[in-house]
Records
---
Amino acid sequence: MENAIGTIDIVVIAIYFVVVFAIGIGVALKTKSSDDLFLGGRSLTWGFIGLSLFASNISTSTIMGLSGAAYNSGIAQSMYEWMSGIPLIIAAIVFVPLYLKSKITTIPEFLMLRYDRRSQVIFSLLTIFASIVVETAGGLYAGAIVMKTFFPNLVIWQTTFVLAFIAGLYTAFGGLKAVVYTDALQALILIIGCGILTFMLFERLDFSWDTVVASAPANHFSVVRPIDDPSLPWPGIFFGVLLLGFWYWSTNQYIVQRILGAKDLQHARWGVILAGFLKIIPLFIMVIPGAMAISLFPGLENGDMVFPTAVTSVLPAGLVGLVMAGLISAIMSSVDSTLNSSSTLIVIDFIKPAKPDLTPAQVTNYGRITTIILMVVAAGWAPMIANFGGIWAYLQQMYAMFVPAVVIIFLVGAFYKKGNAEGAFWTLIIGTSIGIGFFVLQQMGLWQLHYTITVGVTTAISGLIFWIVSSNSQAPSAEVVANYTFSSELVNEDNHGLPWYKNYINQIYLLAAVILLVLIILW
């Protein structure tokens, strides 16, 4: 490590913390009701929604995981980032209008309206598990690794608790609006900091792309890989990347919650499309730097250390602090979002139904207490992630267990009018059990298919279950079909009479063209 963290770096980080806490305290003073705490008063505009979607998704586990994957196996896994625009387009067209029309606070609430209480409870529990054990703990663990790079004497478990406390404090009292406002700041810091690092890495290579390519193994910069590729075989693009992406961007409470807090349908859709464009940026400031590091820092054994090594070896004093603030921002933006969404799920899906006479003030207090409890649980589990062979592998393997069943009941359920409560319930039960079974067999070495292909297999089985059970049980009512399944009228709802640049359909065309161009270049 060439550059130790200096006084000026600590000052930069301290300024960042002061600003974040000032925003959190300012919003907390205005947070009075449960609607304020959980949905930001349903007043969020498109810019804050888009930046918050980006920042909440780009956690330290994403930065370090993508850089490490690019260093070890190539840039194929970058497709999880820049191809996010495709599931976001589906969300903008199909699910954003359905969710906002339903006036829900949580995504599991939508399942109660579309199917029944059983599906709501199961999906809510799965989402809470994913948010705390996977997302929050993963972000805290990655953050602790980063901090330990700069301060070698830190203890991982102690660091995760400190980070969780900092993020949890303003989340518990400021709610979603504090999360979104701080996310917007964090997104900007993250882009600037990682952008500077990328520039300086490229400068060390004399701005020669040929040098970058020459130092990497064959096909390192190709995203379409053979079927036996260990990082991302080509069938995984269609099964793993797109199906996991759909679950993440259309049904994941901690992501969709800021969409539910939009002031109207137009701002929700604009924010979603903005996030699609922003998701292309990590390819250039997180993935490609990992590939550049091959020639600059050969022989690193742990891929998760690629990004911290680049920061401490390349950047001068002051800029180390800026990137450090960006990495801390990534920790905050993922942890605050998952804590807020999980407390929302617990309060709205479980506590309120059990205690229907709660006052708005009591609901708000339950939300704050729940946030603090979840903060402690996530911090306690985070150190265990070291046993899963890398952050990125941990995240994707955990998701592959339950995503297929969820994809079917949402995506197929939106178009299959006969899909009913029995079909959704048994799809969740059996499909998730099969996903867990494949996960266990894979950990034991008895299942050899890549997890992205396994997602496709489990999704196909789940779809068959949904169809068979729904076809042999009572169809949903006409009211349910009319209100909670897709119809062509939703495509242009609130989209008439707008200037061409405000028409989200035109924005979708542009986003799709950019994604296609990137695919052609990286093929």
---
Amino acid sequence: MVEAVQPIFILPEGYTRTTGKDAQRNNIAAAIAVADTVKSTLGPRGMDKMLIDNIGDITITNDGVTVLKSMEIDNPAAKMLVEIAKTQEEVAGDGTTSSVILAGEMLKKAESLLDSGLHPALIAKGYKLATEKAIEILNEIKEKVDISNKEELSKIVRTAIIGKLSGSDHHIINLLVDAINHVKTKTAEGEKVDLDNIKIEKKSGGGMQDSLLVDGVILEKEKVHPDMPDRIENAKIALLNLSLEVEKGPIDAQIRIDRPEQLESFVAEQQKILKGMVDKIKASGANVVICEKGIDDVAQHFLAKAGILAFRRVSDSDVQKIGKATGAKIVSTLDALDSSALGEAGVVHMEKIGNETMAFIEKCKNPKAVTILVRGGSEHVVDEIKRAIEDALGDLKSVVEEDGAVVAGGGAVEMELSKRLKEFASTLKGKEQLAVQAFAEALEAIPRTLAENAGSDPMSILVELRSAHQQGKKWVGINLSDPYDVKIDDMMKIGVIEPLRVKRQAVKSAGEVAVMILRIDDIIAAGKSAKMESKQPPSSYE
């Protein structure tokens, strides 16, 4: 008689475990669901999503990473796709939707291979080979544009914002190209762009055509005293990392006053100290003061009397930008303040935008920090314009720092990669060639989605694209410039170009996350503790 084997429990109560194919299918299904969520936002004909948070605030956008960040995703595999979107945004500045769509499609193709009996390790190996080969091909087929040519940079911006903005695209394009040209700097490694030096302020009211580029900095600050001037020409700017106040003594210090004249003497001495501070500022030649800390009421009076315009409690980041825009040095003691520490601006003036008063520091001679003031008909419109601008600036940064390396958009580069990877797959002898073939087919998801979102027949478009690429027309993609017609065209010739860095990072991120998810065959999840469950909101069905 065979004794029954007693089951062994290695996990505590509340834990769940999913193994083998079930774990892989669950992960793949979750990742595909995330990709399907953002798929309809891709391209110039992509649709928008309306996101409503738990307090009722509304966001309307077709920016992939914004959609994913706003979703409260609980599934671990799905969270991995959100992470690659965030990484894509940080590294390349754009291409978040493409990277997620590619990852989802790679996993969908991998699922078919799993069903046919191919081991996950072989699929992962093939995907790694395909990713490395795709990066190699991208570096081989890239084109170069002249980054000193404003028209070439304008093509990059136009490709990035097409479909997101309408009516005054050319106006925004010029603003962004000018902004990048102001802040780019030459280094031993080449041109570099620090996007922190481009401040974006947004104000609803007016139209998109009212947006402007300020060759300096805009502060959401009012002058500290009503008697100060509203406008100063040929401004000499002092940046102070100190407070214009009388320093307080130790906490336990006491001042005993027995007679009224002693109080008068004490107040007079404080005023003398504050006047001395203002006199030092005046002696330096400064007529505008930007202070990171507080300014005493008495000091405000003396500054106003001296005709000096002052702002207090300005953030450190804004002070840094003002320094880069005007050439001013930040000083921590008034003894270090002299004419050599002052910055210069053509004009500093107060202006009312909507219901708020703002300070404009502009007409700087060679500003290394600038401000884009974004205007639009409503808060939702302004927010979406800002997101489009941030994506376009990320594209410009990528092109400038990669010395003008670009590829064609409109699905052209994905189709060329797909064709060449299929050729590469045919040279492999092992089963991993099936995975490389699947990777190549997954890349066609981008042109197919562009065609679907434009209301066209994706199969007929893909057939035309494959035929053109087989004939050696490597930059043929989907031309969506005509709202009434979808056709294939040479995207490089019509100026639909994208940064090499964006495409390279998208392919790399998608391939890596697909491999990571495929290699998971066991999911061990802890149950929620009683403490965590007590924090959960009550169900709407209760």
